[in-house]
């Protein structure tokens, strides 16, 4: 069985659903009557859980104290009314904890970096120099420190905001474009093969990344991996909340 290491910052996702059938007399906002609450690990943990669901043996290095993202959602429409982020910063990983990682034990390394403080660009350089097959999804502005990664996955909005036009990147860039699928290295397009009704976009990027890695470590074919990742993400956005991909349904 292939073995993968996920390293990055994690949070706790909480979804509070409720019924909204009237507006407050005090302000033009809906009054919500809570009906149920769900929760799960998010960000790097979501990548980790999806990889495991896809049959990949997986370890994770992440923060123990996690920010909490609480979303208040109308049960009927599935529209988010409010999101509250608590403790929205993370203590940096200690250098000795990175140095202690036995990178040779893994077939691939996945950096899931939400830029909350757990990993620095120096840490990412160390990781990319420690293993030949590193995938990265980051919210950081990507500069020369990212040039030696094997694969960078980024969504279209973040590409426009964070990509340096002067970066001489030696690897492959996978840009996700929502309902329009993904693009490899600015030219090769991969449309969504089977569209699903979109109910919730939360965690879709994590699922795409997990699908990409899971298929690639098995087949060593980035095009096959992108198609598989598209299927994973297309299914997960049809579910409510942040859910783990179900291999039987993709």
Structure description:
The chain is of the alpha/beta class and 250 residues long. The protein has one domain (3-243): 3-Layer(aba) Sandwich (UDP-N-acetylmuramoyl-L-alanine:D-glutamate ligase). 25% of the residues lie in helices and 32% in strands. Helix 1 packs across helix 5 (204-219). The protein is globular and about 60 Å long.
Q: How many domain units?
A: 1
Helix-strand sequence: EEEHEEEHEHEEHEEEHH
Characterize the quaternary organization of these chains. Answer: single chain
CATH topology value: UDP-N-acetylmuramoyl-L-alanine:D-glutamate ligase
User: What is the first-to-last residue Cα distance?
Assistant: 21 Å
Put simply, the count of helices is 6
> Mean pLDDT, as a whole number?
91
CATH superfamily: Ribokinase
Tell me the fraction of residues in β-strands, as a range.
Answer: 25-35%
Name the poorly predicted regions: none
Overall spatial form: globular
Rg, alpha carbons: 19 Å
């Amino acid at each position: 069985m292939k073995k993968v290491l996920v390293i990055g910052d994690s949070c706790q996702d909480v979804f509070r659903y409720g019924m909204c059938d009237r507006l407050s007399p005090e302000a033009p906002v809906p009054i919500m009557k809570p009906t149920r609450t769900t929760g799960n690990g998010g960000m790097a943990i979501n990548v980790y859980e999806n990889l495991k669901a896809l049959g990949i043996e997986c370890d994770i290095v992440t923060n123990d104290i996690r920010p909490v993202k609480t979303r208040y959602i109308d049960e009927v429409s599935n529209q988010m009314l409010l999101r509250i982020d608590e403790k929205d910063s993370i203590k940096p990983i200690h250098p000795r904890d990175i140095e202690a990682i036995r990178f040779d034990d893994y077939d691939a390394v996945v950096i899931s970096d939400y830029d909350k403080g757990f990993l620095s660009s120096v840490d990412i350089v160390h990781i990319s120099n420690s293993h030949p097959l590193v995938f990265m999804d980051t919210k950081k502005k990507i500069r020369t420190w990212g040039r030696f990664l094997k694969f960078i996955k980024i969504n279209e909005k973040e590409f426009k905001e964070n990509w340096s036009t002067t970066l001489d990147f030696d690897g492959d860039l996978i840009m996700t474009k929502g309902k329009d699928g993904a693009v490899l290295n600015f030219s090769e397009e991969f449309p969504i093969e089977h569209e699903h009704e979109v109910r919730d976009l939360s965690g879709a990027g994590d699922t795409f990344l997990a699908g990409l890695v899971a298929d690639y470590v098995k087949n060593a074919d980035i095009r096959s991996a992108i198609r598989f990742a598209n299927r994973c993400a297309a299914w997960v956005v049809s579910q409510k909340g942040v859910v783990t991909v179900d291999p039987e349904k993709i």
